[in-house]
């Protein structure tokens, strides 16, 4: 039999529960806004800006997620969940979530390895896990690249931490390799002289190490020259394309032929029937 006191107790319990639920929701809403504000202020703080961009992006991501986790825990405790019960539930849930999110945890471990071992930094141009681009951000779980044609590529940190990659920006200087083929009628010394003159006119090509120009192969229809020059890493593509064009123009002026395949088509007239 339901008594008046039981109804009053139920109303009181529901009001208390509703108040706690409303408080928890408010904590989540206000807490997330405060976290976003802290993250905004932190990223634009004078001292934080001076931090290495690679470490900066990782710390920002870790701080943001850590504070949001704290807000969620506070909201749950506001509902009246006891700490001991919450810890037990959290432990059980953590085990289940850990098993379900093994990939994400490996990405987190990969992010930590990348930050401490520094195989690449923000701003480096890298190639790894089947993609190539400039590193824009290293987060807790993913690394963001931008390709030369401005595509965004998001790669799991575990893929970059546990596989081979190429960092084209690691060193300040890079070698540019060329292959030039000329006719067998061309004079070897003249060819080398023309190529070296092109190299000497290009101010972006370094004087040391000394440029390398040598005959490398007697091809089926051409003499093949290997050319190697050193440049600052940021000038690699400028030198690569400019040298290709200037060597062709210099060969034309010097009368040096660049062989190319020829196809001779012969036709045979059919006998016409006599009338």
UniProtKB/TrEMBL annotation:
Annotated compartments: Cell membrane
Limits of the Mechanosensitive ion channel MscS domain: 104-169
Transmembrane segments: 20-38, 69-89, 95-117
Keywords in alphabetical order: Cell membrane, Membrane, Transmembrane, Transmembrane helix
Gene3D superfamilies xref list: 1.10.287.1260, 2.30.30.60, 3.30.70.100
Family: Belongs to the MscS (TC 1.A.23) family.
PROSITE patterns: UPF0003
Ranges of residues in domain Mechanosensitive ion channel MscS C-terminal: 176-258
InterPro entries for the chain: LSM_dom_sf, MS_channel_1st, MS_channel_C, MscS_archaea/bacteria_type, MscS_beta-dom_sf, MscS_channel_2nd, MscS_channel_C_sf, MscS_channel_CS
SUPFAM superfamilies, alphabetized: Mechanosensitive channel protein MscS (YggB), C-terminal domain, Mechanosensitive channel protein MscS (YggB), transmembrane region, Sm-like ribonucleoproteins
Protein's membrane topology: Multi-pass membrane protein
Keyword Iron-sulfur: no
Residues covered by the Mechanosensitive ion channel transmembrane helices 2/3 domain: 70-102
Name of the featured protein: Mechanosensitive ion channel
